[in-house]
Design brief:
four-stranded parallel β-sheet; 170 residues; 15% strand
């Protein structure tokens, strides 16, 4: 942890997002480590990634979990129960891969609907996530200010019942 702090030139990491539970290390050991660095003041908040509700509950025996980052999109809802748990407990849910780019049939549908609406595919995917849950915290990747502005414009897209039905259709 000290190495990370030195490289980042920080005294404390405000949000440490554990990106995977290491299958080769007992989860309890990882949680004890996180608890220790938090107690030392090296980490303020802790989040988890790619976890189930049971994993979150287990982690909260050691530390408060403030965020969960799981793969999630309008057509990949394996973690719906985790999103619902985050809503119930006031945790941020950080969806990654919001357009589920590997699903080509879905991509074609989203691209057609986005073109019809005059927005980008990414904007439509982000708008759906914002519409779907108030706990979704979007952190879309970007490499330019223009792309950031495009992503931010997703919040202005009005999703009507017709649009939502079309997104949900097979």
């Amino acid at each position: 942890m000290e190495g990370s702090l030195a490289r980042l030139k920080l005294d404390r990491i405000d949000l440490y997002q554990l990106h995977r539970i290491d299958p080769n290390v007992p989860f309890e050991e990882t949680l004890e480590f996180l608890q220790g660095v938090q107690e030392e003041g090296l980490v303020k908040h802790i989040g988890l990634s790619e976890v189930s509700v049971e994993d979150i509950e287990k982690a909260e025996e050691y530390v408060e979990i403030v965020s969960v980052q799981n793969k999630y999109s309008h057509d990949y809802r394996k973690w719906e129960s985790v999103l619902e748990y985050c809503e119930e407990t006031g945790k941020a849910f950080i969806p990654w891969n919001p357009i589920n780019a590997g699903n080509m049939s879905n991509m074609n549908k989203v691209e057609k609907l986005a073109a019809k609406l005059g927005v980008s595919t990414q904007q439509l995917a982000l708008a759906w996530l914002l519409y779907h849950s108030p706990n979704n915290l979007l952190i879309p990747g970007t490499s330019s200010v223009a792309h950031l502005e495009e992503n931010m414009a997703a919040e202005k897209i009005q999703l009507t019942e017709d649009i939502l039905e079309e997104l949900e259709s097979e």
